[in-house]
Design a protein that fits this description.
This protein is α/β, with parallel strands linked by helices. It has eight helices and nine strands. Helix 1 crosses helix 3 and helix 3 runs parallel beside helix 4. The longest helix has 17 residues. It binds S-adenosylmethionine.
Length: 217
Amino acid sequence: MSVEGTVDWTAHDLHAWQVLRPLLDAGPYLPWSSGAMRASGLVTLCNEIVFGRRRMVELGAGASTLLFARALREHGGTLDAIEHDARWAQWVTDRLAREGLADVARVTLAPLEPHPLGADGLPWYAQEPLAAALGGAPVDLLLVDGPPAHERSVRYARYPALPALLGYLAKDAVVVLDDAVRDGERDVLERWERETPYRFERRELEAIALGRIPARP
Ligand SMILES: C[S@@+](CC[C@H](N)C(=O)[O-])C[C@H]1O[C@@H](n2cnc3c(N)ncnc32)[C@H](O)[C@@H]1O
């Protein structure tokens, strides 16, 4: 990444943190870490919520879960966050309860286990709790920010998300992959585009890719 690129990211994110201020001020401090989504990516997801995405699913819970839940409380809608780590699942669940957001968002613990779609034999979320959480109305906003895929050995850990969850998605659903600037995620996106009808806009500054099924001409 060039110095110019770094400056661009910083300016973009500083602006995004200002845009997010009402949601940040709507509750107690949130512990953002380097593993969390970039602020500019969070803005894109919150805009989708404001413009009418009412059933959201997030793979990989964290501070973002609390922020999205605050936005959904204000604009209407629900969030199912899927988390493999029992400690994080409990922490986010407790925070949702403390903020009175348990009716808006819930965390489902789905440990990682062998999965028929696992690329390189990598595990993915346990199918039973996932299916129990995702039944009901079609999902119209899917965020893929888990399982962790930052190390080379697990760089394809997020591949199963789209093929496994296609059947739960509304026809006009938006699918967002975080960390889309990494080599592993770039490969995953190419594979998703070969194997599904989704096409993705790569947004380098936000480190996300935003996908939809294109309208027929
Ligand atoms: C990329 S993080 C997901 C972060 C979340 N979507 C966010 O943006 O806040 C992937 C995993 O890291 C763990 N995690 C979440 N928040 C964390 C934090 N603040 N510090 C360390 N690990 C975290 C969880 O197990 C989560 O599934």
